[in-house]
Amino acid sequence: MRGYVGLVARVNLSSNSVEICELDEEFAYRYLGGRGFCARILYDEIKQGVDPLSPENVLVFATGPLTGTSFPSSGRYHVGAKSPLTGGIGESNAGGFFGPYMKLAGFDALIVEGASQKPVYLLLESGRVKILPASALWGKTTYETQALLRQKHGSNARVACIGPAGENGVLISCIICDAGRAAGRTGLGAVMGSKKLKAVVARGSRSVELADPEKARREALRLFKKLRENRVTSKVFPERGTASAIGVVNRAGVLPTKNFQESLFEPWLDKSDRELMQKILVGKKACWSCPMACGRRTRVASKEFSGEGDGPEYEAIWALGPMCGVSSIEAIAKANYLANELGLDAISLGNTIACAMELNKRGLLPKEKLVGVRLEFGNPYALIECVWRTAYRVGIGEDISLGAKRLAERYGAPDVAMHAKGLELPAYDPRGLQGMALAYATSNRGGCHLRALVVMHELFGVKEVHDRFSTVGKARLVKEMQDAFAVIDSLVVCKFLFYAISIDDIVPYLCAATGWELGVDQLRTIGERIYNLERLFINREGFGEADDALPKRLVESPISSGESAGHVARLEEMLGEYYALRGWERGAPTRQKLDELGIG
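-> structure tokens emitted (600 positions)
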């Protein structure tokens, strides 16, 4: 096979056994890699009703045919399991270098079953897998773990690991690689923790063979040229990073503030992202084969919030800042450093802390849970204290560790939780972005902007521009983006590329890499197949039409001020058309649609 390295490792931590098998080419052709591999494996191998934190859950790491090649921004990998946070499909991906190194170590996918009695880590090298003891690493932060394992296995090794949050079963914990690159969403760190799997180390020198290397080289040069000619990918991301979105979103009145009670963060209304970041920025950071280098390296010198590390990126700045009413970029950066070190998803963390702040404002939290912390909007010290407490499940941190949905339900106010299907919502208020409303509600993994980044068209003016307050045409746009992004996550490459290129641009390189004869329509069908398979997984776990929904606040309470004032999310105007385009009934694929896509 070309584009792939041809091996899949299956590790059973209960029996301490390893099986290496060849990757089936027909399987690869139908599901590509990454997210597609995860969807098929999880659907086939996880029984209905399995406890996500039991040995019966299956954890999958997967790369794609473009991972580790000369294709721009091809440094990503995908992770999947049944989510302990949502109870549905759990999947996330991350950039950096771990994905390419996993292929250099000889593997397209790693499937982890069972659970170890004692802490272990996996070493992937030269087409072999070793299960090694990790008791000495248990309790270490993600930064300490990566440093110790690279010291042991060499600087050419890359590490994906969990921190104390994952070890402690925190439902909003994540997997960290390359210091601050997170496979952040759906609580997959807790799945690793439940298996006593501290880390996966990948090292090797195996090359990725391409079917037509010369054509691939030409296509890569063509794509890099397109990226250089696009303002966003050549100027905005390299010079300002993801924080560049803050001012645009805030001025549009769709920056969720104080747990979505407001949509305009007044303290930053007259500040640019440059003003915020210049206080702490020390450099930028790129993933494998990436010309954009949107990652930031920062340092906080002030004594009360001192620290250094990766980020914060846009979503973390919002979640740990405006969402919690905190305006100090130094405090936000400190909270982000801790979240990375302890292994917490910054989006879910900030969202759930904000939920706790509102619950406390309503007088619903027990005082004994709040000893030593003044939990109120705008308090940076409370924010940072909650990060520690959440990772170690202490006091109010025990409640926050459950995620916003469970937290709000525990204290009798479910409408205070800002989530979809149990996954906390990200940094765009859907009341002023109707396409994002539909994208959040119909995302298979729950509240997510990265399953259809419609804000590219509704607010950022990329390519085809859509009226953000209109519902017309949004069902088709969301459906098409969801299918396209399923392809992107399966290849596995960075979505930021698609400010400058399209699915059509991928096809020539993919064919040169694999030797397959694929067209755009075939690629989109693969994306649709993956999306429908994920939907089957969550349908089996009890999710249906009623779960393609948004919090009552967003569909009933209009935005109160700013450019988006007076608007609510008009989800019902779009949902029927969306189902019709999908070939779904009551939130589930029909038999006719499944037969059309070849899903057995």
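The two ends are 25 Å apart (CA to CA).
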